[in-house]
Amino acid sequence: MAKRENYNELYLFMQVVREGSFTAAAQRLGLAQSGISRSIRELEERLGVQLLVRTTRKLSVTQAGEQLYRTVESGFDALDMGLATLAHYRQTPSGTVRINASQHAIDKVLLPKLAMFKQRYPDIRLELISESRFVDIIEERFDAGVRLGSDVGHGMVAVRISPDMEMVVVGTPEHFRRYGFPQTPADLVVHPCIAYQFGDGSLYAWELNDDGKKITHRPQGQWAFADSYMEAKAARLGLGLAYVPEELVADDLVQGSLIRVLQRYSQRLDGSFLYYPHRNVSPALRIVIETLKMDINR
After folding, report:
1. Which residues form the HTH lysR-type domain (predicted)?
2. Candidates 3.30.1490.10, 3.40.50.1820, 3.40.190.290, 3.40.50.970; correct CATH number of 164-267?
3. Structure pTM?
4. Which one of 3.40.190.10, 3.30.210.10, 3.40.50.10490, 3.40.630.40 gives the CATH number of domain 89-162+269-290?
5. Each residue of 74-117: pLDDT tens digit?
């Protein structure tokens, strides 16, 4: 078997056979014909077989030479393809980007904006994992996380990826026929309310706004969910009032299957922010960040 340092001679041999003469190969490679001839002779001596038959009129290839030529050609073709693939990786970002986010953020922000990766960045694999609890993205091997507001841990960068979010208090017409329409947040005490429960078991206290003063209402009722979508669904089923992002129930409000109340008291919450460790941002994550932060109208 030829040693690794003889690959140059194998390459010269391949070029001589391809060009059909030492002279043509020398011209193509910009080398001296005598040097190429000597290299091929040394290659034949080392392998112990004759590869080429030299006559004054033409150059012919022996059976052993033909066999070697096919082997060498396929080997160099594979090398060329491998190098071309590296260039492709340099030009086309690839790899996996793993993001932790709520179902709401995945559905309304991440999926719509990242769907274009199917055509533009097919080598980037996206893992969008939904959990209601606050996750340590470093410990649990996420590249990035999404949360409402820009307040993130030490050493993290936060990038806004959606506008502020309008919250709405909604219920079914049947609910209001039974319990009446609340005129102020204080009236909520007589209404069954659907709760949002965090991963640690605590309930989200509804944050409302009364002439610039922040007030909270602790929902009392039969139902608690760890997902805004399920809160909205429970409200549609008439299980109580829900306080959810407007975009989750926009169609219901248009159709009249849900009715909004206490509009002047509703809060606008900070939009979604993508956060990630400030070091070691992969090319694939960099493209995700740039794509998500485009076109933010605050």
Report:
1. 5-62
2. 3.40.190.290
3. 0.59
4. 3.40.190.10
5. 998 888 887 776 665 555 677 889 998 888 889 889 999 999 98
